[in-house]
Design goal:
Distance between the termini: 70 Å
Strand order of the largest sheet: 1-8-4-2-3-5
Radius of gyration: 23 Å
CATH superfamily of the largest domain: Thiolase/Chalcone synthase
CATH topology of the largest domain: Peroxisomal Thiolase, Chain A, domain 1
Helix content: 25-40%
CATH architecture of the largest domain: 3-Layer(aba) Sandwich
Number of helices: 14
């Protein structure tokens, strides 16, 4: 007997849109891609009459400059009463999904859509053609705006040159490697093999941007087409933003799905949505290699869903950078040698449209769950510099007997955090807690370290000495090494 109540939130419509136009003039702009995805999701549900019933439309902010994309989409699909919501970068994409499902479960609304998309490949093609895109940004404001409450980065990190996420994640990666006792070369081999396995999954994903299998050595080692970005990360370790992709998810209550005649074969049920929004900068974490919120939010999601990690039939671990995969897997007890850590093939290969990948992953998860009756899947979400953590548990079973739960564990994570204090003007000796070397297109540019001064204090420093960069990209581990710090810069006490 079905355990689904009338207010149970159900994912009923899944729309995924890709375009790859060499001529930017023939390519659709992001708003059109997102609108197409919403239309495709309605068609997928089998009930196009669902579009005028949309009561809330959520859109995560992208590279585009639209002021109210949800409102524009509502007008285009005839959803005249929909509340438009814009979520700024720094808000977990899982938050949008969780909020829509929570409101349905509480009986506040019956129908909602979460949609996002980018056309960065179109931007790239326009730049190559020396053309300027003139998309109309609009002037009206959304009904609601979601914003992060805290900055995503410590000022000392920015001052040292960590302007882009890849450098911060690479620093966490070095600390993770050292904490597990792997050599530098062994760890680079491990990362390359992991991401090569992701490329094989992407090759079988009809919605992946790059559908080709890539050898591990081609991922591990820099080349003309695979630049080193921040040691040990090459381009093929990181998210591919230059894609034209959109995804839309339409949710409604079980009662409304029944009234609209939507086949239960289309139903995918969210069991739990959990998140931690307590933001800890990389440099203040008790251990640079750990992400406490991932363990707390991840365990809360599994407990709410009534499943254990080994019961998960399908997974999509957020793949912006390898350490996000590693830390999340460890936090919830998933072995890294499991062959299916992603359903899409990961962000370097399936595509990582800015601030929209979780929607792409959830869409793919929903499609695969429909094809596997009774299965349970997990999609993870990251925001900032591993500073926010989100988890969504989904099932194609209607007999688990568990109501949907939305759980925010931010207060619990904050209460258990013992952050370190960053000393911006420190001078003296310290030990490396994590490091990387940033690259310009053709050469190493800047080595950056997060260092432990003592048990309670840290500093962030940099060096442009080419001897330092060369040494730190060698086979020897530099986590734990002593360095001298002064004026925001550091030097090796020995080469």
């Amino acid at each position: 007997m079905s355990k689904v109540g009338p207010n149970t939130p159900v994912l009923v419509g899944i729309g995924v849109v890709n375009q790859r136009q060499g001529d930017h003039r023939a390519a659709k702009e992001p708003l059109v891609l997102m609108t197409d995805a919403v239309g495709a999701a309605a068609v997928d549900s089998g009930a196009q009459a669902i579009l005028p019933e949309l009561e809330r439309i959520y859109v995560p902010k992208g590279r585009w400059q639209y002021t109210n994309p949800a409102g524009a989409i509502a007008a285009l699909v005839g959803a005249d009463r929909a509340v438009s919501v814009l979520a700024h970068i720094g808000v977990l994409q899982q938050t949008l999904i969780g909020d829509a499902c929570r409101r349905i479960a509480e009986g506040e609304i019956s129908v909602a859509a979460v949609v996002g998309g980018e056309a960065s490949y179109r931007i790239l093609r326009a730049r190559i053609a020396a053309a300027v895109l003139d998309d109309d940004a609009g002037v009206d404001e959304p009904d609601e705006i979601m914003k992060p409450h805290d900055p995503m980065q410590n000022p000392s990190e920015r001052a040292a040159g960590l302007a882009e996420a890849v450098g911060s994640y690479a620093i966490v990666e070095s600390a993770y490697r050292a904490a597990h006792g792997w050599s530098v070369d062994e760890h680079r081999d491990r990362l390359a093999a992991l991401y090569a396995s992701f490329s094989r999954i992407a090759a079988d994903n009809p919605y992946a941007w790059r559908r080709e299998t890539i050898a591990a050595e081609s991922i591990r080692n820099p080349s003309a087409k695979n630049a080193m970005l921040a040691f040990p990360y090459t381009k093929l370790h990181v998210s591919s933003w230059n894609v034209d992709q959109a995804a839309a998810l339409i949710f409604c209550s079980a009662a409304r799905a029944g009234a609209l005649g939507i086949s239960k074969d289309k139903w995918v049920l969210p069991l739990a949505s959990t998140e931690s929004n307590f933001m800890m900068d990389v440099s203040v974490r008790p251990s640079v290699a750990e992400v406490p919120g991932a363990q707390i939010a991840g365990r809360a999601a599994l407990n709410a869903a009534g499943v254990t990690a080994d019961r998960l039939d399908l997974l999509d671990l957020y793949t912006c950078f390898p350490v996000a995969v590693e830390t999340y897997a460890e936090a919830i007890g998933i072995p890294l040698d499991r062959p299916d850590l992603t359903v899409t093939g990961g962000m370097p290969f399936a595509g990582g449209p800015l601030n929209n990948y979780v929607l792409q992953a959830t869409a793919r998860m929903g499609q695969m769950l429909r094809a596997k009756a009774g299965a349970v899947g997990l999609v993870t979400s990251v925001s900032g510099l591993l500073t926010k953590q989100g988890f969504g548990v989904w099932t194609s079973s209607r007999d688990l007997g568990r109501p949907f739960q939305f759980i925010d564990v931010s207060a619990e994570v904050k209460s258990k955090a013992k952050v370190k204090k960053v000393v911006p003007d420190y001078a003296g000796l310290a030990r490396v807690a994590g490091y990387t070397v940033l690259h310009r297109p053709s050469q190493p540019d800047r080595a950056i370290v997060v260092v432990d001064i003592d048990e309670a204090h840290r500093a962030v420093a940099w060096s442009e000495d080419p001897r330092v960069a060369a040494a730190m990209e060698g086979a020897d581990e530099f986590v734990g090494r002593e360095v001298s710090v002064s004026g925001g810069r550091f030097g090796l006490t020995e080469y």
